[in-house]
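Dear colleague,

Thank you for sharing your sequence with our group. We've completed the structure prediction you requested, and as agreed, I am returning the results in plain text so they can be pasted directly into your records. Please verify that the sequence below matches your submission; if there's any discrepancy, let me know and we will rerun it promptly.
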Amino acid sequence: MKTVHQIADHSLRALLVIVLLFTTLVATAQPDFRSGNDQGKGYWKIQTDYATRNTVIRFFNARSEPIYQETIRGKYVKLTKRNMRLFDEMLNRMVNSELLASQVKSYDLLATNDFRYSSVSSSNRFVPSEKPAEEFVPIENRLFMANPFISESAKLRVSFANPEQKKVQIELTDDESTTVYYNESSYLAGYNRYFDIRHLSSGKYHLKLKSPDQTLNYLMTINKPYQEYSLKAIK
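Please find the predicted structure tokens below.
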């Protein structure tokens, strides 16, 4: 059965194929272009590299977090009304897919303690068989950055920017790392997911985001009697 992300990814690539029908191979580059920023919608951005003649198309949500990236090699995209409309449609699909996926994961992941599994078990979630080819990304945008936090509705939001699309391991365990509540590998340029933590017992938990370059650790504390939830970075 295909996941929400797989279905969305397939649809997005199909739309990009349509856009490619209207592109032309050229030796020069076009200026960077960013669509209008609708606070409730997000925006898309196109950059063309002078050296590689590759065009990178990035999509961002309303919080300016990257949610999808694609590279068109050796081409540039003519910003016709048709192509801009197609990119707007892709943005709408991605934003809606992101919202749907976050809700599905919230209630599937931690609805009951039955979803816990031994730390020696491997995740059966989809992981690409090989690392994607390196994309053109400006040096200042190549940093791996994360910003997890707990919302007022007791949802743990895990989000990070992974511009170079390196493998990132996302793991949520108890404080002793003996019980794994969630374990996933992601190559996404932008990752954003919500976890419903209201069903977890009082105690301390460990959130780890591990990339090839660095590992970020966070301590999550839950006090159920007082409905208190906290998250802080640790070494």
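Summary note from our side: The radius of gyration is 19 Å.

Kind regards,
the structure core
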